[in-house]
Every structure is written in C-alpha cells, then in structure tokens.
Amino acid sequence: MRRVKRGFFLILCLAVLTTILAGCGYREAGDFLLERVEGGYAIMDLSKEGYQKKELFIYDQIGRYDILYISKGSTFFRDPPVIDSQLLEKVYFVDYVPSLQKAVFGHCFHIKKIIRQETGELGLNEYYIVLSDPTTSMPKRDIKQYIKFADYLKGGFGDYVFPANVSFFINYKSQESDGYHWIDDYDYGTKITYIPPEPTREGYRFDGWYKEAACLNPWNFETDTLPEAILDGEGEPIYQETKLFAKWIQE
C-alpha cells in the first residue's frame, strides 16, 4: 500500500511539473520567440519570420507582451535555441531593453551594427552585451554600436561605441531626447534606405524630412546620399553627421 501511494505521488508530481513547463514554453510574437519571466517576457530567439529579416527592431513592448530583456538563459535550465541568423545585418534597439548574455548576437555572423535609439541608464560596461563573450571559445566579433552624437559627447565609452552619422530631429521647441527622433548609420556616400516612423505633434501635420532646420530643401530618399568619406592620416573616415529636420504644418 505504501509503495502504491509513493508511486501515485511521483506520478502526481510529474504531472504538475509537466503542466508548469508546458505553460512556460516559447510564444511567438512577430519576429521573436518569447518566454514568460517574472513581471513580463524575455526575447529568447527569432521566429521563422524573424530569421528572414536583415533588420530587426526591438521594443520594450511587442503586441501585448512587456519585454524586460534579451537572454539566452532559461528559467528551467533547458537549452534554449541560439540566435544564429545568417541574414541579420542590423539591429535597432528602439527602446532600452537590456540583455543578460554578452553573446546574444554572437552567432549572427553578418551583423555589423547595433543602433541604440534609447540607451536608458546603461553603464559603460553594459555596451559590451552584444559582443561575443571572451571567456568562451567563440571569437570576439566586430559588432559596432551606435548612439546619439549628443550622448557620445559625454564620453567614457569603449572602442566599440560610435556616434550615428544620420540624425532625424523633431525640430520644434520643448523637444525631448535632445531633439532626436531617430538615429541611423550608413556608409558614407550611400543612400538612407530606412525611413523612420513619422513623428507626431499635437495640432500639426508632419510634412517630410528636410536638410536644414528652416525646412527649405527636402531630403530625397530616392536620390540624395550621405557625403563622401573624408579620410584621416591613418585612412579612417572622419565623422560627419547628416542632420534631417521634420517640417510641420499647423492644422
């Protein structure tokens, strides 16, 4: 009788554990697979759709899911899939979403740039999170990160953090975020291929991006290019910022 009770108890425990694990599986949300964590969700991998993208945009909310961080760790110690896209070239952190793993994009061998629209309260060492972990056998990747020029001027960053060379400004008084709406980075002499979401302003209609704050000459995304590279004595491009300004029409 005691043996029967013990067997029933083990079966019950196994059933409960299976139910818990099943309830904590990955959930697909757009380009990502998410896992439930305390207080929200973590991005654990890319969806089939995400693996077809050359550019990814990371927000602190995807649909109805609050995204707290990116992590390769697992609540239940199973081996999570590794983000190893062979198409991914650029990642935009639209919101501040930290990672718990340094090598989160370390297996994406074609990725070259991380664009951080919002840096939050990042400590200087935390900018290292998207590179490969030097304590593993995986070689260190040359994945550069780009931030606002205004933030870069504050100084103290490592040699893998650079100012973005394309800046979109919302272009009116009482501006937030130093007036920046969006940043991006491209090779000098090339076109801007991604047009950011249109800014909004109460009582006004957005009327395009212009080359100067007075909004005299519109930027033509079909034909206009960034300035050609100017090289320093060591053959490295000298930083040049291309500024675009929002034009507003009062309604």
Question: Would you mind describing this structure in some detail?
Answer:
This protein is mainly β. It folds into two domains: 26-164, no CATH class; 165-251, Sandwich (Immunoglobulin-like). It has helices at residues 2-23, 149-152, and strands spanning 27-29, 32-37, 40-46, 55-58, 61-62, 65-70, 90-93, 113-116, 144-147, 161-163, 166-169, 180-184, 204-210, 242-250. The longest helix is centred in the first third of the chain and has 22 residues, at 2-23.
User: Order of strands in the sheet with the most strands?
Assistant: 1-2-3-6-5
SS strand fraction: 25-35%
Strand count: 14
| pLDDT averaged residue by residue | 82
Give the N-to-C terminal Cα separation: 82 Å
Order of helices and strands: HEEEEEEEEEHEEEEE
Task: Flag low-confidence runs.
Answer: 13-23, 124-129
Shape: globular
- In angstroms, what is the radius of gyration? 23 Å
What count of structural domains?
2
Helix content: 10-25%
Name the structural class: mainly beta
Largest sheet: 5 strands, mixed
**Number of alpha- plus pi-helical segments:** 2
Question: Quick gist of this model?
Answer:
By secondary structure, the protein is mainly beta.
Topology:
Blueprint: H1 2-23, E1 27-29, E2 32-37, E3 40-46, E4 55-58, E5 61-62, E6 65-70, E7 90-93, E8 113-116, E9 144-147, H2 149-152, E10 161-163, E11 166-169, E12 180-184, E13 204-210, E14 242-250
Features:
251 residues, mainly beta, Immunoglobulin-like, 2 domains, 5-stranded mixed sheet, 5-stranded parallel sheet, 2 helices, 14 strands, globular
